[in-house]
Amino acid sequence: MLRKMRMGMTTRHAGWMVLSLLVLAGRAAAQEEPAVPPCDGRDPAAAPCRARYDAPPALDSASVAALPAGEGRTPLVWIYVDETGAVRHAQVHRPTGPDFDIAARDRAKQFRFRPAALQGAPVAAWVLMPVRAVPPPASCAASAMSVPLSAGGVFVDSVVMERPELGTRFRYATAGFPIDLFVYPRREGDTPRAQVERAVAALQAGSVAGGPDSVSVLRAGPERLRPSDRFRGIEFAGYGAFVRGRLAGNRVESYIGVFSARDEDLKVRATYVPDADARKDLRVFVQQFLSHRAWRMSGCPR
Fold first, then answer.
1. DSSP strand pairing (116-118 vs 113-114)
2. Domains of the chain
3. Is the pTM here over 0.85, yes or no?
């Protein structure tokens, strides 16, 4: 009898959790979705956008698996649901911490939905919803991503460079421009300033394939950044430069920044149309990838 009562309580609790998820999802969507642009004239799967539909995607409660024991957090996650109700992309919108964000993204990809409908036909659409997540008890080695998706960019790919000293390049796409992150071993005697100055000199000399022409330096100098309040004891010493020039006849701005992280160097490189919002997005990315690196350097604390 007692066992049946417990089973009934567990079932009701799971149902309550799913119902709460659906209610929170509706509130989140109502508050945040108007801020994203319409999908008209763009690839709807490339980034969150507002699709046209008569009925939004609806979560299939049977696809929401129970969470394991452990500390949980609830990031807001953009989820792209295709015409069949399958989740094709998941991107953290409001982060709660790198380990929790990655767990929430992975959990969201397991959901199933009733797809959005337009005039009676299923259509693909993005939906914004809170996703409760508990990270698995894994080591730092299990986290292959160099930065979380919450850093304002969607992970595109990674490439191990041909020369070992160049390390690995991770490419991310934001709503307006790509960001490249290079992670490579520290070379004896080299400094972030020397690396950035060599890169700027190569741009000014026109020796960078696909780089801007007639480059002028807007600002260059040392950067010392603490990644977040959670890691007050870690500070990254780096050097960065903003340059401006023309690319295919259009004005562009480029940022190059190199930060030391123990026995590795981290280089961020991005080119975008000069815009205050673009600079802000780039700064958010840099701050969050440094937070993730500090998290790894600290032993991936939960």
1. unpaired
2. 2-130 (no CATH), 141-297 (3.40.1000)
3. no
